[in-house]
Amino acid sequence: MHATFSLAVRGVVAAFALAALAGCQKSQSQPPVMPPPEVTVAVVQPRDLPANFEYVAQISGVREVEVRPRVSGILEKWNFIEGAKVVRGQSLFTIDAAPFRAALARAEADLVSAQATMDQAKRNAGRLKPLYEAKAVSQKEYDDASSGEQIASANVKAAQAAVTEARLNLAYTRVEAPISGITSRALQSEGTLVQAQQTLLTKISQIDPVHVIFSFTESEHLKFTRAMADGTLRLPKDGRFDVKLKLADGSEFSRPGKVDFTDVRVDPNTGTIEARAVIANPQGLLRPGQFARVQLSGGVRPNAIAIPQRAVLEGPGSKIVLTVNAQGIVEPRPVRVGDWTAGEDWIITGGLKAGDQVIVDGVVKARPGSPVKIAQAPPAGAQPGQPPQGQPGQGEQQPAAKPAATANAPQPAK
Q: Given CB 3.0 to 4.6 Å as the disulfide criterion, which of 65, 230, 315, 356 pairs with 320?
């Protein structure tokens, strides 16, 4: 009896052992199902976006004049302080005036002589006129007297012009500032022989306001024009963009400006189109020749689609984004990209529509055709682009490289 019971117990234990072994083998052949990965998405929503452009620019005075002598002679004296402000009409240099005084005296003497000759010719013609009427002199004698009077009158006018020219040349020995502004250094020393219309004496720049000169390429202009034609870009009236300057030290100039000119021609040497802005400079911080970066604002991209740059990936032959459909399945989507916005967004010109859910964070865990779980929004105060807590943030697929900066051209100002 005892032996029979012992055999029964052993049979039950063996049965349980076989069942447990079968269960282990079954669990090893079927691994546990992993939950779908969490991702953060951005819902595509078209909206009006600002269109800003940035270029390298150079400062120039609103008026810049090269001061050159109008007469040749010896430079006698400087009459100004280099680098100081001057006003229009102020004397800058004096050229030796002695030769020009002599020339004026000679011209005045020639005028007196011509006047005397004309008076004599008038008297002769006056005496012959009654004799001619009385048939006492010939027609030739009277005509000669009349012609002599006309020639003498012409000689007087020529002498008067010579006197006027001599007086002007004497006045030009005082070299004056043609405009008000700030002078550069004097380029010729006292005692130098200067040549009329050739020798550069100094320069004067009017620096309040200043001009900001910048250029954009022909291809940028074409891209810009097409965007306006298809309605994806809207510009300020007459192309009068608002302007801000970034200086060489990274600071922003305090006063804004306006674009006031865009050239209609393309420079054949550089293939660029020149544009200009004007900015007030009452404190003289901006100087001619200075380099800066000009930022243009005032344009609008109506109904534009923009997504974070990190959501755009490099695909085979094109850029792609990963989207989540209504069933929670990942779908790759090829897209066409445009310019960058002022922040970290990339404008999408094709491939997406309103309502699409684009994966922004968690792309390394997302697989095309696989389900994903959309994570909750990041907590308040999180840095932009920081993945939600518990979501992998390292080792994700690198986003597409940022393209070379392309800034569209401003609309020509009329």
A: 315
